[in-house]
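Run log, item B.
One chain of 399 residues. Sequence copied directly from the ordering sheet:
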Amino acid sequence: MLSHPGALLQMRTEVQTWLREFDALIARVGHQFGRVEARQRMQEYVQGLLSPIERKNGWQLSEQCGDETPYGIQHLLNRSKWSADELRDDVRSYVVEQMGDREAVLVIDETGFLKKGKHSVGVQRQYSGTAGRVENCQIGVFLVYATRQGHTFLDRELYLPKSWTDDAARCRAAHVPVERKFATKPKLARMMLGRTFEAQVPVGWVTGDSVYGSDYHLRDLLEQHQVRYVLEVACDHSVSFKWEKQRIDQVIAELDSSDWSRLSAGTGAKGQRWFDWIAIATTHPDISGWQRWAVARRSIDQPDEVAYFLAFVPAGTSLEAVVETAGTRWTVEMCFQTAKGEVGLDQYEVRTWQGWYRHITLSCLAHAFLTGVRSQASDSQKGGHLSRQFSAFKRKRGL
């Protein structure tokens, strides 16, 4: 029970700190909204995203703001004059200020947003990892910043299938910019990585699944910037080994069975995630002091289940460091889960390009603040103190 006077005082102090930080964050991004009404509406929108209401759609957010209709919310997302990309840059600088770390891991992944009909921008029947099957959905590609202080979103892009980019009339109806052409998911990831490097965000590693690991251009971009990576690839991916191209699974199969090491990829919901790991250097890049590795992860209980990775690391890097980075990929799933469950990432009711980017960016802003709050409170989190403190914060902020 939280009954000790000192504990109560600490909780009140932390809640007051969060109140000040929330107001400071809103003031920090307020310059993006030229009119006072737009700034106020933005603040109410973010407060609504942080609120415990069941659905963060236009009607419920409007009711939370005390409006009788969703017109004000719709105006903020569709017609009000402000740039989602400039707000994204402010969110990125806020995240770096709160969590910046030279050993940070950038995690690339996509998530699906299930939709009905065919008018929402980018929607079509396509595979959604969220649903685990082909569904009528939109796909968003995201870049997550993971550090010991927490993990949250840095950037986002909407994937437009060729069924959209080949249909000019359909794109015009959804207000897709004329200059936007078809781009694969790895190309969208390269765009986000390029912006991150240009902004000089401190980064130690990059990781992602085989959709991104199989893209030569993405790996080349990381090598040009001398950023370490651990990227998953398919079992038939070709690597240069012993002066010839070979499948990565064949290269791993030729290694001595005694060379496998049992290592933990980090703590999961059920404790340490133990696997058997092995790695071998392949070709040497044209960068002095760096190596490329072929890496494999094998299930302990089901040895036939093997995942393969490519790594780019400085000479002398330990296998443990590579394994730890590969295990960081779970953070993006946690971000999707908390963002959808707590700040309405997937609960929008917009159809246009601008509406999608505005809602998603405001959700990323709310998630970044939530991550900062949890990071600051982690040292004093005992016996449910954090949940009580955050509930007190919401009450005081009218949430």
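Observations after the first pass:
- Residues 155 and 192 are 6 Å apart (CA to CA).
- The longest helix spans residues 5-29.
Flagged for discussion on Thursday.
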